[in-house]
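dumping the sequnces here before i forget
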Amino acid sequence: MSVLEISGLHAEVAGNEILRGVDLRLESGEVHAVMGPNGAGKSTLSAVIMGRPGYSVTAGSVTLDGTDILSLSTWERAAAGVHLIMQYPTEVPGVSLVDALSEALQHRGRDTAGLSDLMKAEADRIGFEHRFLDRALNVDFSGGEKKRNETLQLAVLQPRFAILDELDSGLDIDALRDCSRRVEELSNDADNPLGVLAITHYSRLLNELRPDHIHILVKGQIVTSGGAELADVLERDGYAAFTSDDEEVAEESAPSSLDDLFKM
Amino acid sequence: MLALADLELPTADAEIWRYSRIADLDLTAFEIQPGSREVMGDDTFITLDAEADETIATPDVFAEYNAGHQRTVDITVPANTAVSEPIVIEHLADSGSAIFPRTVIRLGAHASCTVIERFRSADDAASLVVPVLAVDAGPGSSVTYLAVNDLNESSWQIGHQLIAAGRDSSVRLSTITLGGHYTRVRTEATSKETGSEIEQVALYFAGGDQMHDFRVIQNHVAEHTSSDLLFKGAVQDRARSVYTGMIAIEEAAKGTSANQTNRNLTLSEGAWAESVPNLDIRNNDVRCSHASTVGPIDEEHRYYLESRGVPPEVAERLVVLGFFDEVLNRLPDGDIVGEVRERVARKLSIGVMS
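..and the predicted 3d for all of it:
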């Protein structure tokens, strides 16, 4: 069993403090959801865990089985077993999925024999057309195809933990179901159960991907943690229930209920 | 004829030589030699070392000098004839030599052929290579030409290409430039008659102290002609590159379509690329586009690959090869694509430096 532990994490972007002391502990096979309004620091959390350029950690730690991963470069974090599914997967012209996966596997000392067959099998499980396997990464893909592509990579690379940054953005209900079911299956894998940190604004993702734990992130801090029942509170009252009356939830918007959120 | 050393060289004050290394060229270092040449292909279409054809224009002193010292490969394909196998011309430049290869391709009506010309150095010492290519594509003909510059990094190439596309003809010109201390190609591609199509692609990659320099004109004289240009280059270390292109559309050339795209990757702080696309359009009924970029590898591309667990130097290699993929896909079929990918990958100094 593996543990991904985030302790007292503070981080800033361009001198602005976005994360103000985040604590989270994930174990293999657990599904955690981090939910929060716009501007809460959700995307910053995923960027900092993965080491995206432009984000600096000012205090706190992120460890994988006791190893400090913040001192590792991005590719080393991935190779150590932390995988990011991006909110908006980048289009990389001229670089095929098979080339990228082949390099990624080789540099973690894994065999690439049978990669092509494995990719096809995974593609079939999530309704990803084979013709996309040879195309340049994400180039001219629809939102749903991009997330299926991300999910396929996750299944092939078999990391210990996956961070899903807004998996549900930009994809239709079929793709959402296909992708989240595959993630759910991976988290229940008997040999290598995946730990999942699903970062999301909306609760619709949680209808497919049933979390064991829900954390509410507001202004860079986790204000409440609980079980699946927290999603029902959110559904009913929105984020207003978790923010104090005299504070704006976010600079750009202060939605008072999920209904407001959906209108945005 | 003048001795080579007595040639009056142009200066970088002239726009067409701006940014070039012409001021550094020392002609006294070179001696005119025939050079080694090998021509492979169906010899019924090939004549070697014919007299120079004086109707071929000589826009500068180098092309002019070529006309007096050339070794010609004349490829003439009669009407309605398809040459099935590519004709391959290999040049080997010895140290200290100046060579003046000339390739003339003439296609009769509805004829077709593919010609691949490669320039190499015999050793590491400098040579001067002054090639001329002239293509005259007859009505409905189709020609594919690929030039590969593999000279060593101390040699000079100052080349000139003259293309005339006849009625409904199709001309595909490709250039791969990896070699040379200074490699220059000047191309004048003229859509001379109605319905002709000219495609030009180039891949260039300069490292160390190399410089690659391209001056291209897409000249539309006749109506309903089309041209498409895609030049992609990369520079690393202290290398430099120049692309200056001109789409010129004459008054009579209505219904013409012309595209010009030049993209450059600067892979090191000290590397420099210049891209100057120009348009000179004298008819309103045309469709033209031009695009030009110079910049480093997109950080987002690198980060995406690294976040999959691909080390940075490998990510950069994938991104650079991916950048060139668009050109590689448009080269003539054959072993060349794999070979060029391999050469580009090996030339990248990213891994060495980090």
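Chain A has a mean pLDDT of 90.
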